[in-house]
Amino acid sequence: MASETIQTFPPETPAGDIDPQRLEAFMNKMVGDMGAAVSGALVVLGDRLGLYKAMAGQGPMTSAELAGATGTSERYVREWLSAQAAADYVTFNADTQKFFLTPEQAMVFANEEAPTFMAGGFEILQAMWRDEPKIEAAFQSGEGVGWHEHDACLFRGTERFFRPGYNAHLVGEWLPALEGVTDKLAAGATVADVGCGHGASTILMAKAFPNSRFVGFDYHPASIERARERAADAGVADRTRFEVAAAKDYPGGDGYDLVCIFDALHDMGDPVGAARHIRETLKPDGSFMLVEPFANDALADNLNPIGRLFYSASTLLCTPASLSQEVGLGLGAQAGEARLRAVAEEAGFGRFRRAAETPFNLVFEVRP
Fold first, then answer.
1. 3-class secondary structure, 211
2. What residues contact residue 183 under an 8 Å CB cut-off, 6+ apart?
3. Which of 67, 83, 141, 235 has the least CB density, counted as fewest CB within 10 Å?
4. Per DSSP, what are the bridge partners of residue 214?
5. In the Cβ-directed half-sphere of 88, how many Cα atoms lie within 13 Å?
């Protein structure tokens, strides 16, 4: 029988246009990306079952020992450990046939207080997969998908993903970068945290500055209930309160010394209206601290791993949230400094300064 030539490119594409080495490299990238995607589900599983925490600091373990420590099935744990070792998420010793977490791996997967903790972020990815049909429908209709319409794992994951960064930077770096703010907080100030979610940032500030009073606002009732519980658990309920309110109409009281928005302005349908309301509720010498995902102004400068992550989240979460609201500006999670400055100026602010930054965040001081 005569051998047949297997054609691996579309008939209309000239063979000379295909670079076999580039194609092979791209296919290898696809295999790696598919492996990363499926590993995400296993991270969520290990996090939920306490497998990472049971391994942290315990030294080498067999699958039977880990299963015994967590009350899980050895056969399932053995397969999970093998997959995690193949991903380099846990370490395998071929001589002893045991698995362990290095200190670095434990900081990423087992220590929720470490600034490098990432397991919570995989819950956000879980919500993206679960709610993908809603986004598909939105692509076709042009309508939005509200934050509250997503699976509850999004709300948990968001708090757990952002909290380590706030723990690492908010009190020690970001607040001191604002002119005179830490002195006010130490003496006793009034602070509003707009779009507070589960209250991680509000509670962190309240713990650091016991003389000040803090109020967190969020339009999502379930998140406000969780924030109240977390404040009570943290022992700061005496100086914090949490209320259901939108960014454009939260109560101003006698005015705030500091208003904060953490990683949320770009999710709002009318960020200009929200910023304008913040200006109206600030005291004359008050400050607005705006924390947003890190982004350069030009798309080409964001084509990197951080940009990949944030553009993807923006497609599935942030932009649909904005488009579900009035105005529906759709800033997106990669708005960049120039667009954010334009929002602040349109809202009536006179001063806008980049005060700090990390690989994941830009921090701006905005003043009347």
1. coil
2. none
3. 141
4. 191, 240
5. 3
Q: Using one digit for the tens of pLDDT, what is the confidence trace for 46-95?
A: 999 999 999 999 999 999 999 999 999 999 999 999 999 999 999 999 99
Distance (Å, rounded) from C-alpha 62 to C-alpha 142?
Answer: 51
Binning pLDDT at 50, 70 and 90, where does residue 17 land? confident
Q: Is the pLDDT of residue 286 over 70?
A: yes
C-alpha span between 152 and 174 (Å, rounded): 29
Percentages helix, strand, coil for the chain, rounded to the nearest 5?
Answer: 55, 15, 30
Is the CB of residue 255 less than 8 Å from the CB of residue 286? yes
CATH numbers and ranges of domains, the chain? 29-109 (1.10.10.10), 120-367 (3.40.50.150)
126-172 pLDDT, tens digit per residue, is 999 999 999 999 999 999 999 999 999 999 999 999 999 999 999 99
- DSSP code for 61: B
Q: What separation in angstroms does the CA of 308 have from each of 118, 126, 356? A: 16, 17, 22
Asked if 93 and 100 count as a contact pair (C-beta separation under 8 A), the reply is yes
Of all helices (H) and strands (E), which one includes residue 247? none
| Euclidean distance between CA atoms 266 and 291, whole angstroms | 10
- Kindly state the tokens that stand for 327: 């105005």
Token pair for 318: 């942030």
The whole-angstrom separation of Cα 192 and Cα 282 is 9
Q: Please report, for residues 242, 265, 270, 274, the alpha-carbon distance to residue 248 in angstroms, rounded to integers and kept in the order given.
A: 16, 11, 8, 5
> By the 8 A CB rule, do 327 and 267 touch?
no
Contact 321, 147 (CB under 8 A): yes
Q: And the tokens for 238?
A: 């005496």
| Residue with tokens 């609201």, as numbered in its chain | 325
> What is the total residue count of the chain?
368
The SS3 call for residue 331 is: coil
Which positions ≥6 away from 236 have C-beta within 8 Å? 203, 206, 207, 214
- What single-letter amino acid sits at 24? E
